[in-house]
Amino acid sequence: MATKVTRIKAKDDGPKTKSEDAEKITRKVSVKAKNSESKKTKIAAKKAEKAADKDAKKSLKKADGKEKKVGYFRGAFRELRQVRWPNRKETWKMTLSVIIYVVILAAAIMLLDALLQLIFNQLLGGK
Q1: Are 1 and 10 in contact (CB under 8 A)?
Q2: Is residue 5 part of a domain?
C-alpha cells in the first residue's frame, strides 16, 4: 500500500499595495537604465523612479487604518493555524518542569535571604 504525500507550498495571498507595484516598476526601470548607455534613457529612468516613489508615498498616505488592522489580524490567524500545539502528555511535562523550577528557585531565594539576615544580624549586633 502506497501512502500519499501532500506537499504544502507557501503562498503570498496578501493584498498587493500600490507601493509594491511601484517598487517593481522602479526596479525594472533602474535595471533597464543600467543596461543602456544612452543618457536620455537614464534621465527617463530617473524621472520614472521619482514618479514611482511619489505614487508609493501617496498610496501609503491614503491607506486606511482599518485595512492595515484587518491585514494584521488575518496574518496573525494564518500563523496561529500553522502552530504545532503540544499534546496532553507534552503539556504536563512542561507544566511539571516549570513547577519544579519555581520550587527550586524559591528555596534558593529563601536560603539566601536567611543567610543574609544571619550575617547582617551578626554584623549589626541585633537579636
Answers
A1: no
A2: no
- For the whole model, what pTM was predicted? 0.37
In this structure, the answer to whether residues 24 and 78 fall within a common structural domain is yes
> Is 8 inside a domain boundary?
no
The whole-angstrom separation of Cα 59 and Cα 49 is: 15
Give Cβ neighbours of residue 36 (< 8 Å, ≥ 6 apart).
Answer: 42
Query: Are 55 and 25 in contact, with CB atoms under 8 Å apart?
Result: no
pLDDT along the chain (127 residues), means of 10: 68 59 62 58 73 64 57 87 91 97 98 96 82
Residue the block writes with cell 521619482? 50
**Cβ(75)–Cβ(69) under 8 Å?**
no
